[in-house]
Specification:
DNA-3-methyladenine glycosylase I; globular; DNA-3-methyladenine glycosylase activity; Endonuclease III, domain 1; Adenine_glyco; mainly alpha
């Protein structure tokens, strides 16, 4: 990767690693960017967790979600789709009273509905992870600047439509593009090729 050039606008931190500005805001974001962002997630539970957290992030900062992620995992049974799909009104009340998570009633209900849709997908011969990964872009061109990094793509729009048709909610094309970036479906233009960094 010695010939890799980071897009214009990246910041080189005190550790010599180049990152986009959002990843240099806090130590938590730097660690997430360096170790998780853009790394392939291919299991159903892992994709369901990230889809859920991207929905909770909508309208908020990602660092807010990261700080609350341990509480989210505990509150949502480790994001086990089968467990969350069985949540009832008592669970909704429990979640709304949980100060450790983002207490948004609509997003909580959407997460439960999305767990049920995840379980239902299996009856079609696929699962959430396989479905999401089927929308991996064929064109993997890297942007040349932060300004040219898109917030949606034809694939994220198509994924959004497919998921909505399957009963998923809070899965708009921008949120799905963020998911696709986070779990490794699109170019790692905002993530350093760490093996080539010193």
């Amino acid at each position: 990767m010695s010939d890799f050039t980071f897009p214009a606008g990246f910041i080189t931190g005190s550790d010599g690693v180049s990152r986009p500005p959002w990843a240099e805001q806090t130590e938590l974001l730097r660690d997430y960017y360096d170790t998780e962002w853009g790394v392939a997630v291919t299991d159903e539970q892992g994709v369901f967790e990230r889809l859920s957290l991207e929905a909770f992030q909508s309208g908020l900062s990602w660092v807010t979600v990261l700080r609350k992620r341990p509480a989210f995992r505990e509150a949502f049974a480790g994001f086990d789709p089968d467990a969350v799909a069985a949540f009832d009104e008592a669970d909704v009340e429990r979640l709304m009273a949980n100060e450790g998570i983002i207490r948004n009633h609509a997003k909580i209900l959407a997460t439960i509905d999305n767990a049920r849709a995840t379980v239902a997908l299996r009856e079609t011969g696929t699962d959430l992870a396989k479905l999401v990964w089927s929308f991996r872009p064929e064109n993997q061109e890297l942007p040349t600047s932060l300004e040219t990094i898109p917030s949606t793509s034809p694939e994220s729009l198509a994924l959004s439509k497919t998921l909505k048709a399957a009963g998923f909610r809070w899965v708009g094309p921008t949120t799905m593009f963020a998911l696709m970036e986070a779990i490794g479906l699109v170019p790692k233009a905002q993530r350093p090729f760490l093996e080539g960094q010193s």
